[in-house]
Amino acid sequence: MGRVSGKVAIVTGAASGVGKEDALLLAREGAQVVLTDVNEEAGREVARSIGDAALFVRHDISSEADWKAVIAATQDKFGGVDILVNNAAILAYGTIETTTLELWQKIQKVNSDGYFLGCHYGLEAMKSRPNGSIVNMSSMAGIGGQSSFCAYSASKAAVAGLTRSVAAHCRAKLYKIRCNSIHPDGIATPMVFNLHQDKSAPPAYVREKDPKQLQARFAQPQDIANLVLFLASDESKFINGAEMRIDNGYLMWAD
Q1: Whether 152 is catalytic
Q2: Is residue 35 part of a domain?
Q3: SS3 sequence of 13-80
């Protein structure tokens, strides 16, 4: 217990799924947590369940003004920022042939622009602290690519590249701030399992139809939160610019 005691964390997309588990675990391990999301009702409920060590702020991560407001609220409430978990994202079907420019730009605005803004303002806030950790949620789609998620794959590859750039910058400047990315395969969250409601979804999506694939390819949100906690804590103080795969051997061939 107490692996992040005395630290202040911002977790985006904290109303449900992985972000919720991140916030709950960081709080249990001693952090004061600012939860952000566009879903105000659910986000406030998670914050209430944590208690005085939590604050909810409504937050569109693609908005620069919202990022400034979140950083200011965090500093006003808890005195600073030590941990930033860029977790919020959107997901939609679309191959290179079916993805429209409108869909492409919508996904990039949240998944790419939103993470850039988080790193930009989070890094600035952390410079006055003893040390800092930025954890960016990417995806195996950003490494291997997924044909059914063209824009999403590109956005998550951008997150990986952004992470490496931030890490290299912090090392060059001798900042005691680290930036790492996490690359899950599938995660059992509402965002993923609600994909079947998308009218553009393939008629037989293997991850939802094959029980063996469900077992092999879907992590639980808690599995991701455990890795987030490690990267947020001082236990990982020499890990910087890493692409942490949490995918049950997704890139390997199995007999």
Answers
A1: yes
A2: yes
A3: CCCCHHHHHHHHHHHHCCCEEEEEECCHHHHHHHHHHHCCCEEEEECCCCCHHHHHHHHHHHHHHHCC
Q: Tens digits of per-residue pLDDT, 188-237?
A: 665 555 555 555 555 444 455 555 666 566 778 899 999 999 999 999 99
Residue tagged active-site, from 152, 175, 205, 250: 152
For residue 168, what are the domain limits? 8-246
Is 251 within a domain? no
- The total domain count for the chain is 1
Q: Nearest Cα to 135, choosing from 36, 11, 30, 218? A: 11
Q: Compute the distance between CA of residue 253 and CA of residue 247 in angstroms, rounded to an integer.
A: 13
Q: Which of 238, 234, 134, 226 is nearest to 181 (CA)?
A: 134
